[in-house]
Each structure stands twice: as structure tokens, then as C-alpha cells.
């Protein structure tokens, strides 16, 4: 078996998760009531891979290129389909040149860049970490210590050489995930705990 799923409890539904991430300023009291280990600052991380409610101030792409202001058409023309209501707090201007995901791209928050030869690029926005349970369907934010699948198989270390993963008697090459896709901050720190670095529904470890 190449990968398995982990049986993790879900804390909140997607709608509530989005509300929390969009209106975190008004929900500090609610967040303080969550169990220890679940507290996190939604202004510096994204709850899910899509990062629709991300309100942080990262303004450089994953290759460290400075982002273009969302309310200006220089150096690149902003897609007219990207309107104010697609941004947290309903404003392009308020989002300045911060990484956002107004068109729901699967790669998560992104931005137009100040490099005339590079129109846009994804941003390396870290995932929020929740140690008690997952709060979204895919559970990309789960940062607990569970390390066995529903079949009770023990997980492999994420830092293991994944070009030599055994599956059904054969070695299978598996994609290596970037460190920022882990709520722990790196594959090494994720050890062999259940994680979902690609946001695939149902996949949690190899």
C-alpha cells in the first residue's frame, strides 16, 4: 500500500473555518476558548491550502520576487474578473500587495509580481498548525502526533528518500513536498506524523 488515510477528528466545518479566518480580529475571544495547542495567529498563516481567508502581510513570491499592488495595473494588468469582493474584507486596496487567492487557485495564495518577465507566482504562505484535530476536510493544517493510518500501518518519515518507497513489492517514486507545505515548517520536523502536504482529500501519509 503506497499511502493510507488517518482517522482524525474534524473540529469545525469549512464554512466556520472561512468565517474565522476572514474575521479573526473579531473572534479573538472565541479563539481563546479553543483547547491548548489549537491557538494560532491566522494573520501569519493559512488554514487550508487554498488560503482563501489568509489576511497576512507576506508580499513576496516563493522565489522571493516582490508582489505587485492589487489595485494597480503596473507592471501587469490585473484580470478584470478579480474584483474587490474576492478579497478578505472586500477590498483590493486594503490587500495592498499582499499574497492572496482571489480566484481560488489550487496552489493557494499568489500575486502578480514586479518582475515584468514574470506575471504571477505562488507565495510560500505557511500552514497554520492545529495539534488536537483537523478543522478542514483535507486536514492540511493538522499538526498533531498521530502516526498510524486506518489500517494501523505506521507512517514513514516525510524526510525519507521518496524515490525508493516500496509499494506492492515494487519501488515507486513519490513527489517530494516543499517544507512550507507542512504545518510543522519542514518535512524533517513533521517526522512520521499524519500530514496532508498536497491538500488531497483523504491522503494523509505514505
From TrEMBL:
Question: In the UniProt record, does the keyword Cell membrane occur?
Answer: no
On the tree of life, the source organism's domain of life is: Eukaryota
Instruction: List each copy of the Kringle domain by range.
Output: 51-128, 135-206
The record ties this protein, via Gene3D superfamilies, to: Plasminogen Kringle 4 (2.40.20.10)
Alphabetic keyword roster: Disulfide bond, Kringle
- Regions crossing the membrane: none
For this protein, the record's Pfam families field holds: Kringle (PF00051)
Q: Which SUPFAM superfamilies does UniProt cross-reference here?
A: Kringle-like
**Database matches in PANTHER family:** KRINGLE DOMAIN-CONTAINING PROTEIN, PLASMINOGEN-RELATED
Can you name this protein?
Plasminogen-like
Which organism is this protein's natural source?
Sitophilus oryzae (Rice weevil)
Gene, per the UniProt record: LOC115874055
Amino acid at each position: 500500500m503506497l499511502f493510507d488515510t488517518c482517522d482524525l477528528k474534524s473540529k469545525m466545518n469549512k464554512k466556520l473555518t472561512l468565517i474565522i479566518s476572514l474575521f479573526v480580529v473579531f473572534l479573538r475571544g472565541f479563539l481563546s476558548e479553543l483547547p491548548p495547542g489549537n491557538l494560532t495567529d491566522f494573520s501569519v498563516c493559512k488554514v487550508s491550502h487554498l488560503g482563501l481567508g489568509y489576511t497576512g502581510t507576506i508580499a513576496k513570491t516563493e522565489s522571493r520576487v516582490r508582489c505587485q499592488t492589487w489595485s494597480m495595473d503596473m507592471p501587469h494588468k490585473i484580470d478584470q474578473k478579480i474584483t474587490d469582493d474576492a478579497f478578505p474584507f472586500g477590498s483590493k486596496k486594503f490587500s495592498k500587495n499582499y499574497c492572496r487567492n482571489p480566484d481560488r487557485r489550487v496552489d493557494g495564495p499568489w500575486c502578480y509580481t514586479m518582475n515584468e518577465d514574470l506575471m504571477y507566482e505562488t507565495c510560500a504562505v505557511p500552514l497554520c498548525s492545529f495539534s488536537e484535530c483537523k478543522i478542514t476536510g483535507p486536514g492540511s493544517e493538522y499538526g498533531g502526533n498521530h502516526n498510524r493510518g486506518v489500517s494501523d500501518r505506521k507512517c514513514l518519515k516525510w524526510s525519507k528518500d521518496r524515490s525508493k518507497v516500496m509499494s506492492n513489492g515494487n519501488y515507486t517514486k513519490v513527489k517530494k513536498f516543499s517544507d512550507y507545505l507542512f504545518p510543522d515548517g519542514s518535512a524533517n520536523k513533521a517526522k512520521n506524523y499524519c500530514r496532508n502536504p498536497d491538500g488531497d482529500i483523504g491522503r494523509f501519509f505514505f
